[in-house]
Design brief:
Pfam families: X8. One of its GO terms (cellular component) is plasma membrane. By secondary structure, the chain is mainly α. Helices cover about 30% and strands about 0% of the residues. Helix 1 runs parallel beside helix 2. The protein starts with 5 loop residues before the first helix and ends in a 31-residue tail after the last helix. About 25% of the residues are buried.
Length: about 80
Amino acid sequence: MGGVDSRTLQAALDWACGPGQANCTEIQPGESCFKPNNVKSHASYAFDSYYQKEGKVAGSCDFKGAAMITTTDPSHGDCIFPGR
């Protein structure tokens, strides 16, 4: 996600949480993964949620080049990512 512009990231996030049916509850205001409140953090959570929902199928974590699979757990504090 490092080299992706914020508009592309936001579009992918909107798709994941909308038509992609990822569980994006935890990135809503007041929830455990809302902070940091930025597109990159929210997209990271949503992309992982979608990837897990799709059964970790190859190609389900690309989002037009905006995402990639990692072995590093991005969970932090009370924010536990779905794939953990």
